[in-house]
Amino acid sequence: MKVLVLGGGYCQLNMIKRLKYEGHYLILVDYLKNNPSKKYADEHHCVSTFDTPAVLELMIKSKAEAVITMGTDQPVLTAASVAKEIGIPFYVDPDIALAVTNKRIMKAQFDRNHIPTANYRLITREFTERNVLGIKFPAVLKPVDSQGQRGIFIVQNINDIRMHIDETLDYSRESKVLLEEYYPNDEITVSGWVHEDKAYIISVVDRVTMEKGNRIGICIAHNYPSLHFSKYREDIYSITQSIVTGFGIKEGPLYFQYLIGDRGIIVNEIAMRIGGAYEDIAIPIYSDIDILGLVMSSSLGMKNELQKLYDYDIDDKPVSLSVQMFFIRPGLVSYTTPINELLELDGVENALYIVSEGNKIGNIENATARAGYFIVRGADYKDTLNKVDKVFEKLQIKDSDGKNMVIKYSEYENKYKFI
User: Which residues of 329-353 are buried (b: 16+ CB within 10 A; e: fewer)?
Assistant: First the structure.
């Protein structure tokens, strides 16, 4: 089958390899000339995955029979729009895809369906103090239609908004940005699948993030199972189903981010894709559910085998797992520990470098600055984190002066903790 693939980044890599292994003809769409998936594709076109008309034109010219994306947010809308225009299968229609990729529409849907979320305003570059009345500072400034923590800032006052709003708008195709009250929190991520309007939760993980000056929300780890799950189980299931019902989601993957603080759970944002923390690898380890296979089948118009989903009990898999997305300090990369030496360590399930020797690394501004990842499995939470420590002891990415550039999770402001 001729398949148009939207996005050639590292979070799409496993899907692209698998599609190729299964014998599909791959037409890769990615605006970057040198992307990690290019070598596995039969064709590569330097087109933005956000450019729906250009993708549609390419789809028609290439006579592609299917369109697919997996671990990126905004291209879900492009895929849904193109699929509907041509009349081929995709797991979500454009109206719902727009609602789960545009925070302006998403927030309105939360309000309409009484789904708890942070108090917010939509403001333009020409906003006045009157436009933000009722917002308590600190607050968070976000693009309404971006991804990867691009253009997100924590702001303390009106002057901070004015200082950062232009950069936030640089990451948006709209004229308005989202300003919402900052809710001190721990963050959890809910992954699962929707079938016939019903949400099937596969995992609830703790999403550990860094705070880098006034930039927040950059993920450094996913830890499974969440330390919050037992306390908030009923709320998690109830809110998740309320979102699915309220947004009219019929079928497809769910990836919902919730914040837990002194007012309980509020919803940060939602998506209909596999998470960008390599959930396509992690979820089968602790659930035996092939979440990537479900996305592929739904996108290619094939029937999904859902019996494992029906039978799955989230409490029946006593597995502890940590996905570490590590970052490095600025400098010129001159050496990396051979990846096979990391894979030989106890508990390491998977590992990959995004940087390589000769790369010049700048400051961390968003999630695109990741240097790589590794996935560790342990007997329990403490055992897993001990094994994570062992990997960081082994992991070396050296600069031209021979200094290790790797930032360990314990160096961030947001520390791991036991509840």
Answer: eebebbebbeeeebeebebbebbbb
> Using CA atoms, how far apart are residues 183 and 28, in angstroms rounded to an integer?
39
CA distance 168 to 219: 19
Residue 380 pLDDT > 70: yes
Domains of the chain: 2-90 (3.40.50.20), 119-181 (3.30.1490.20), 186-311 (3.30.470.20), 320-411 (3.90.600)
- What is the model's pTM? 0.94
Specify the amino acid at residue 89.
P
Strands 335-336 and 264-271 turn out to be unpaired
**Residue type, position 356, single letter:** S
Q: Is 380 helix (H, G, I), strand (E, B) or coil?
A: coil
Closest-CA residue to 330 (of 280, 289, 354, 365): 365
CA dist 175 and 154 (Å) reads: 20
Going by their DSSP bridges, the two strands 372-378 and 320-328 should be labelled as antiparallel
pLDDT tens digits for 175-213?
Answer: 999 999 999 989 999 999 999 999 999 999 999 988 766
Condensed to tens digits (0 to 9), the pLDDT of residues 272-328 reads: 999 999 999 999 999 999 999 999 999 999 999 999 999 999 887 678 999 999 999
Helix and strand tally (H, E) in the chain? 12, 21
